[in-house]
Design brief:
- By secondary structure, this protein is α+β, with helices and mostly antiparallel strands.
- Helix content is about 50%, strand content about 10%.
- The strands form two sheets. A four-stranded antiparallel beta sheet has the order 1-3-2-6, with helices on both faces.
- Helix 1 crosses helix 5.
- The longest helix is centred in the C-terminal third of the chain and has 20 residues.
Length: about 210
Amino acid sequence: MQLTPVQARVVGSLIEKELATPDNYPLSMNALLLACNQATARHPVMQLDEPTVSNALANLRAEQLVRIVYSRSNRVDKWRHALDEALAIERPALALLAVLMLRGPQTTAELRTRTERLNPFADVAELEDELRRLAGRPEPLAARLERQPGHKEPRWAQLLTGPPPSPEEWESSAGRDPVATGPGTAARLDALEARVAALEERLGTAGTLEA
């Protein structure tokens, strides 16, 4: 399995919203676009349009990594990921892979902070154990990057999009957020997505059918 950066952004966004805001999941196309194009908690920031995301979803669906939840009213169809089923992984691993797909290589301390809303880890040791399990699979899903000059700690990277970045790529991108985030940013984004979901529900979703 090797995802493109756009496919990783789509899957990571679906996982994040499932774990952080389950009441608003699965996601409509509008909500998914909002999630993919967030200017916070994303590195790099992307500006994806609907055709690009639709193409990514079509390819992911062909690989059985996402599923469409059809509206019986034929108005608003929604999407959910199936990465946990495809890879036989549980919530802790899903949370780590989502954050790594959405924000690039990170230290264990950064990962613990950034997965808090998705899957709280008791301590760094528990998180590291989960990372080692991901790295120790027959087909590894994560890898530990050696500490680079000028950095105090090594970082971890996901392997769903291919080999880890080179030291030069890692040096230029690892762990940096292009936009500063305040303590209420995530809540505001969740509230916005909830409003989108509520408006779409009002358009009429009398029932759903998954495929």
